[in-house]
Amino acid sequence: MGLVRKRQYYGLLFVAPAVIFFAIFFLYPIVIGFGLSLTDFTLLKPPVWVGLQNYQDLLNDRLFLKSLNVTIGFVLGSTVPVWVISLAMAVLFFQRFPGRELMKVLFFTPLLPSVVVVSVIWKLLLHPSGILSTVIGPIVGQMPIKWLFDLQLSPIMSVVVHDWHIAPFYMIIWLSGLTAIPPELRDAARVDGANALQSFLRVELPLLKPTAVFVAAISTIRAFQGFSIQFVMSPSQGGPLDVNTTLGIVIWKYGFQFFRMGDAAAISVVLFAFILIFTLFQLRLGRSDDFSLS
Amino acid sequence: MKVKLLLILLIVGLLAPQALAQDEPVTITAWGHNHLPRVELDEEMIAAFMEANPHITVEYEPVPSDYYATLNTALASGAGPDAFNQFTPFSAQFFLQGILAPVDPAAWGFESVDEVKALYGSSDMAEGMLAGATYDGTLYGIPTEMSAYACYVNLDSWADAGLDPAEDFPYTYEGMVEVAEKLTIRDENGVITRRGFDFNWSAAIYMMLHFVPMVQQLGGEMIDEVNYTADINTPEVKRVLEYWNNWANEWNLGGPEYVVSRTGFRGEERMATECTMGNWAVPGLEAEDSFAPNYAIYPQLRWADAVNPNGFANYGFYWMVNANSSEAEQAAAWKLIAWLSSRPDRYLNEAGLFQPKAAYLESEEFKNNEIMPVFLDEIASSYFHPRFAGFNEVIDAIMRMRDRVVIAGEDIDTVLAETDEEVNAILQRVKTEF
């Protein structure tokens, strides 16, 4: 009994640094952030307690509602297409064909530069007199193409650039999932007369469920936090007319441009709640037997 | 004799602590935005200051990016600097929140602030130059840079179009439409490859510094910084907004989708005319650069029927002192600021920054300066941009007004009415909040 208790103490001792780190750098800011969301705070004067007023105000806040809309659109565009594209790429590169490794490296390349660098490069490519306008403009019969200034086109380009940049990352995750599937199962399916598509849909896809949950959760969290591409690539950090103003940008704007820290903190809490709900939902979905082999 | 000795000892005794206090070591922090030529000169000046005042240590920190957010956050956490360089429109909320310490004339060896003001000329002149840091008649800062913008023309681009700015520069917004059309080059698809002139559409602040004076020239006033009210739904604002809209959509002479006008002028495009640069741009334009234009400087454009003489909005960067610093730190900070404002010649020649000291304006060197008369005329005829708390939020709303008309093509009257309501609501809120 004494030995067991001693071991428990050792265990606590060993996890203590991680727990302390988490408490200081994650838990404490979350608590403080929630506290701030209940105040009016302009940075230069002490916070004034307003209770839930900031949350109530968000219901009529034009920029918040707009950014919520933009964020949902961005999440949809940055998750489902990315899952499909990255899975398709992974399935492709799981096959053996000449030049596969080279192609894999080339497909992986967009992930190497930082998202800021990617955004700057795409901003140049999408200039009205840039190369994409020059090539595509005559085909679609419109010159110049206002890629980043058209109210419909601009948010789509944010999604395109995001998906182009991030799909290779999820491709690698899917590839590792595919590699982990025992080859005997595919062989057995083939022996049973399943073609490649049937084998993929009936054997591999269900077995990729844990990978799918991971990809879905991570990509959704990242998409909700969307900030850098819109901040760098779109005109006036989230424009034009806020069509690229995500919740992340509106938090930055309210906090560090408008000095409305209480409102910024309230939006942060709402964003946190969204991410938490979606992640829990996805994890719950992952635990169900919907995709099981049986 | 004994009485005399006692008196001497008494006087020495009374003065000694003060003398000691004056020499007591004090460390101050000074922050500025990262304008590299100024930073290098600041560093040199501060080193000399510390040599002359060995009891004062200055920790100088140019903030590389997001200066204003960094400054506000630091002040909020109590880690703010003792002295800081502040952009005039942003200083209002600092004033409202009691962050600003009044100018201490003792740092210059004077007894009254009027003597400090006199360094900037006769009372009318000084009032104008120092207005950017004056609130309720009290002076809270010393200019490190006064700016108004004029028009830079690329002489080669004008010559390509068969125009000579000496003869053809339009001086008016109405005239610029025709001249810019002649200067503009389009490719076979109608895409502009070189603009004759364009507004600086990039950030809300450039729009405000240009748009607000265009309205003022017509007799309008968009924002009342004293009463915190806005008057946006007016014929003057409508006329200016229509001009900007026509510039992009009707006359197709430029627009928000093109590269920032300054980049267009200094870069490969060789844009013919750019009107959002101050005298500070000259060192950059004269640096070794393959696209450095052969340029001349002309006055800012004005409406043909302008009722006010202003061109572009004046703005400044002022050294200010943190009212929450200790008395000794404040005194040392003002002493540093007095030192940094003692060499307007060096700041103009080495950093391209204009400090309007009266003695320097009278000097032969300044009188022989080829470009400064244009900028000085602009400063003298223009007004400081309104200063108010909630500045960023208001200019964000006004830029949205522009984009709703220019980009989204919304009805101008509806947009003006809604923006008027929105900006007034912001101003009323911030007035109580800050």
Folded structure, characterized:
The complex is a heterodimer of chains A (294) and B (434). With 294 residues, chain A is mainly α. Chain A has a single domain, classed as Orthogonal Bundle (MetI-like fold). Chain A contains 13 helices and two strands. Chain A has a two-stranded antiparallel ribbon. The longest helix of chain A has 35 residues, at 2-36. Chain B has 434 residues and is α+β, with helices and mostly antiparallel strands. Chain B has 20 helices and 14 strands. Chain B has a five-stranded mixed sheet. In chain B, strands 12-7-13 form a three-stranded antiparallel sheet. Chain B has a two-stranded antiparallel sheet with strand order 4-5. In chain B, strand 8 and strand 9 form a beta hairpin. The chains are: A mainly alpha (294), B alpha+beta (434). The interface between A and B is medium-sized, with 29 and 37 residues.
What is the compact description of this entry?
Chain A is mainly α and 294 residues long. Chain A is built from 13 helices and 2 strands, in the order H-E-E-H-H-H-H-H-H-H-H-H-H-H-H. Chain A has helices at residues 2-36, 53-58, 62-94, 100-108, 115-125, 131-140, 153-180, 183-191, 196-207, 209-224, 228-233, 247-257, 261-287; strands at 39-40, 48-49.
